[in-house]
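I am still learning, so would you mind making up any protein sequence you like and the tokens describing how it folds?
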Amino acid sequence: MHIDILTLFPEMFHGVMENSILKKAADKGQFSYRLVDFRDYSTHKHKKVDDYPYGGGAGMVLTPQPVFDAVEAVKKERASRPRVVLMCPQGEPYTQKKAEELAQEDHLIFICGHYEGYDERIRKHLATDEISIGDYVLTGGELGAMVVVDSVVRLLPEALGNEESAKQDSFSTGLLEHPHYTRPSDFRGFQVPDVLLSGNHANIEAWRRKASLKRTKERRPDLLKKIELKEADKKILQELQKENEN
């Protein structure tokens, strides 16, 4: 996978891209990336990339020319048909399912906006996807792009060192993940559940499934309506309901 990130502030990405899982994945050649300052593509004599909105109003709007030219340039270099992701608070709410979808692509281009917003022609004629990481407004799209890139790259083969890790993450199964424990088994009197020390893998998996269902029911009951539950899962949820009533 190759990722191009169009931004007016490429230096914001250095700490994120050059540490932890992202750095390791890049070093192993599992993905490559480039930070593109689309101000470099402006044809304005002062390299302006924004202007006042037609019709008046507060703030400045990103002009289409630099963004279109930057996207066309990176497309031409790779001779590809990438997904062009516009980071925008009006976009599709970001989910793990979307991350898994984007992780199948060979080339992604992220456009990080700034100021009041984008010229609508960028949205209508250039972007293939619009993504929002939440119902709030940030100063620019850079932080949102970092979130999306991180969540996508960690799904690439061997990025985490253990392929099962990503599969068991919260939301990957449609449920929140079960609790985790590690050594020591007794910390200040707080005990690790006995079943996890038993060595009985079948019992451990059953405990984890029940714990996952319980946590989802308590914290995100809306998720239970979006997945197809097995009969065993429905039985567990009925048992949990009875436990609550008692």
